[in-house]
Specification:
With about 210 residues, the chain is α/β, with parallel strands linked by helices. The protein is built from eight helices and nine strands. Bound molecules: guanosine-5'-monophosphate.
């Protein structure tokens, strides 16, 4: 059992530390794959095309949407963000737990399309800590920080739609907690229908033999 990977969504307020968490998870365990999103946002200093994101323009993004190349997309603080379909499908087929680090509108679309996906919301311990982390990052203007904080208020309304909420206070503890949740989720019957069906058929085979 537990051979199949799951599709997991990691969301959280901008500044919750999702990026660092994901990197730590990928470093520690080899059964995760991170989906790289496509965005129309400008690269931040140090971001590389194809690593943090596939950076593109609005026209190319819309073309990709129209040929069904994304499994979900959303507009966030004035830019488009979306999840390319091909990579997700390849990695799931290879048995990896595929991580989508996406915001809430996209998360809800994923849950609708893939009901067996696992939705985890990451939050810092307090609102004050969130503001401190955003300011410390130093890559955004005060206006952009204010926009992201306003967006956090909106996103906080949707937390109940997630399967789990995880507080990112200590990084290692948080990584372990997420891994534990994913491992537990893989044991839920709805994610193991093929295994269940197979063992049922095998059992039926025994019964027939005993007749
Ligand atoms: P940032 O500009 O800080 O990199 O990302 C802004 C928000 O967009 C974050 O909440 C991030 O998780 C989300 N995001 C990144 N990629 C995607 C995506 O492919 N789809 C959706 N719906 N949101 C995304």
């Amino acid at each position: 059992m537990k051979s199949k990977g799951i599709l997991m969504v990691l969301s959280g307020f901008s500044g919750a530390g999702k990026g660092t968490l994901v990197k730590a998870l990928l470093r520690k365990y080899d059964n995760y794959a991170l989906s790289v999103s496509m965005t129309t946002r400008a690269p931040r200093e140090g971001e590389r095309d194809g690593v943090e994101y596939f950076f593109t323009d609005k026209q190319h993004f819309e073309e990709t949407v129209s040929r069904d190349g994304l499994i979900e997309y959303a507009s966030y603080c004035g830019n488009y963000y979306g999840t390319p379909r091909a990579y997700v499908e390849e990695q799931m087929a290879a048995g990896k737990n595929v991580i989508l680090e996406i915001e809430i509108q996209g998360a809800l679309k994923i849950k609708e399309k893939f009901p067996e996906s696992l939705l985890i919301f990451v939050t810092p311990p307090s609102a004050e800590e969130l503001r401190r982390r955003l300011e410390k990052r130093g890559t955004e203007s005060p206006e952009a920080i204010a926009r992201r904080l306003a967006r956090a208020v909106e996103e906080s309304e949707g937390i109940e739609s997630y399967d789990y909420i995880v507080v990112n206070d200590d990084l290692d503890t948080c990584v372990e907690e997420i891994h534990r949740l994913v491992e537990a989720a893989r044991s839920v019957p709805v994610r193991n229908t093929e295994f269940i069906e197979r063992i049922r058929q095998e059992l039926q085979g025994f019964t027939k033999g005993a007749d």
